[in-house]
TrEMBL record:
Gene3D superfamilies: Vaccinia Virus protein VP39. This is FAM86 domain-containing protein. Signal peptide: none annotated. InterPro entries: Methyltransf_16 (IPR019410), SAM-dependent_MTases_sf (IPR029063). GO terms for cellular component: protein-containing complex.
Length: 360
């Protein structure tokens, strides 16, 4: 492929122009809070509350407003094309249509067309679509429908990666603007793709220890970027147990990892890898790279073991905060924040953020 440069163990993709979303004529409607929230949650495959669905139904009782709403969904679906839908899409549209029929409202062709499209799904894959704050750009991330597939959890999106992307784009720009970024356990590549598409990073190195995951990352990068860009993507094989710093071609200014603390057996290799990376790159960058982790707290005992392992291995926590129920809880106070990357999990748990540094 003429837009890629291959080396023995990784691929550098010289791509990066984000897929633009040229529908300024409907952006005025997307400024409505309930419409914007529905669009974000619908295309992100998040579960939409009945409260929000009922607001949409009330909005669509007016035929002209329903046409605008239908135009938005149809225009986005048409421009994205080949989107692999989920059951959540069908359920949301079926509910809206059924409620409108009960209220004897005439249903426009756009809603029926979107419902028909949502029935043409893929047996193994689905797509999550995320928009920037102004709805002028989007990214599309393909994932496996099953959270555990082919012996790994890395082929699906997870809550903490969505929450980390949202935090960095809204509140953590100091970490990413013009930075060289390294992500450990990058999974589908959502975080790196979002940071590149929304014009933040200088270079992005996405790593994982599973070849199937790396192939999915490459596919997702190709789906979102054209040939000409200023950002360099590095997709590399990196195992925490046998981490080789020399495989990382570009010295990172910041290291990220999301949803990597879930298995107690993986904690020690992860912490050792972080310490090795921070130690090695501190020699090349006077201040040393930052390291920010986001993890969903499903089991407090597992998280406690992670914190203990950090302390035992020459690392300390510089900063810690949480995100739960659309609220960031910082030491300086709380900030209500509707995520750009909505995610629904079967069990709602907080996401805990840590910034790690080497001990003096």
């Amino acid at each position: 492929m003429d837009d890629e440069h291959r080396t023995d163990n990784h691929i550098i993709l010289h791509k990066g122009r984000p897929c633009e979303f040229p529908i300024a004529e409907i952006c005025e409607q997307l400024a409505r809070k309930e419409i914007a929230q529905f669009v974000r949650e619908y295309f992100a495959c998040a579960t939409i509350s009945h409260e929000l669905l009922d607001k949409i139904v009330s909005f669509c009782e007016n035929s002209s407003q329903q046409q605008l709403f239908g135009d938005i969904l149809y225009a986005i679906s048409f421009r994205i094309k080949k989107c692999h839908f989920r059951k959540s899409h069908r359920n949301a549209l079926k509910y809206i249509i059924e409620q409108l029929e009960l209220r004897h409202a005439e249903i426009g062709w756009q809603l029926y067309s979107c419902l028909t499209d949502s029935m043409m799904d893929n047996a193994t894959h689905a797509d999550r679509i995320y928009f920037d704050e102004s709805f002028l750009k989007y990214i599309i991330v393909q994932e496996n429908r099953y959270q555990l597939s082919q012996g790994t959890t890395g082929l699906s999106c997870w809550q903490a990666s969505c929450d980390l992307a949202n935090y960095l784009l809204k509140h953590g720009r100091r970490y990413i603007n013009g930075s060289n970024i390294l992500e450990l356990g990058a999974g589908c590549g959502l975080l790196g793709i979002a940071l590149a598409a929304f014009d933040c990073a200088k270079s992005i190195t996405l790593s994982d220890g599973n070849d199937d995951v790396l192939n999915l990352i490459r596919d997702n990068i190709r789906s979102n970027f054209s040939k000409n860009c200023d950002i360099i993507f590095n997709v590399i094989f990196l195992e925490w147990e046998t981490i080789n710093v020399e495989n990382i071609r570009i010295v990172p200014d910041v290291i990220f990892a999301a949803d990597v603390v879930y298995d107690t057996l993986a904690i020690k290799p992860l912490v050792h890898a972080i310490r090795k990376l921070l130690t090695a790159f501190t020699k090349e960058i006077k201040t040393g790279p930052s390291c920010v982790l986001a993890n969903t707290v499903r089991n407090q005992e597992t998280m406690d073991k992670f914190i203990a392992c950090i302390d035992e291995n020459g690392l300390s926590v510089k900063n810690c905060f949480t995100y739960e129920n659309s609220i960031f809880k910082f030491a300086s106070g709380n900030i209500e924040d509707q995520s750009l990357f909505p995610f629904t999990s079967s069990v709602q748990c907080p996401t805990l953020f840590h910034e790690l540094i080497l001990k003096d």
